[in-house]
């Protein structure tokens, strides 16, 4: 639920609030050894950073998502 909430906030709020929520969800997934879900959170972070004009941050999250599913 936290992950989905983070997605919605990141799409509708120009602040970094959505990013913080998505990072919290990702960290929870990682702590729970849920790598696929953590990768999904990383991809959501890609979108959040890309659309906010931070492509370098987006690329970093994309790389981490790929590492999580390898």
Helical residues, percent: over 70%
Shape assignment: flat
Described by strand count, sense and barrel closure, the largest sheet is: none
Gyration radius, in Å: 11 Å
What are the low-pLDDT stretches, counting only 5+ consecutive residues below 50?
Answer: none
First-residue to last-residue Cα separation: 25 Å
**How many helices in DSSP terms?**
4
SS elements, strand count: 0
- Class by alpha and beta content: mainly alpha
Name the beta content range. Answer: under 5%
- The residue-averaged pLDDT reads 95
How do the helices and strands follow one another from N- to C-terminus? Answer: HHHH
Structure, described:
There is one protein chain. With 70 residues, the chain is an all-alpha fold. It has 4 helices and no strands. The protein has helices at 2-12, 17-31, 35-51, 55-69. Helix 1 packs antiparallel against helix 2 and helix 1 runs parallel beside helix 3 (35-51). The longest helix is centred in the middle third of the chain and has 17 residues, at 35-51.
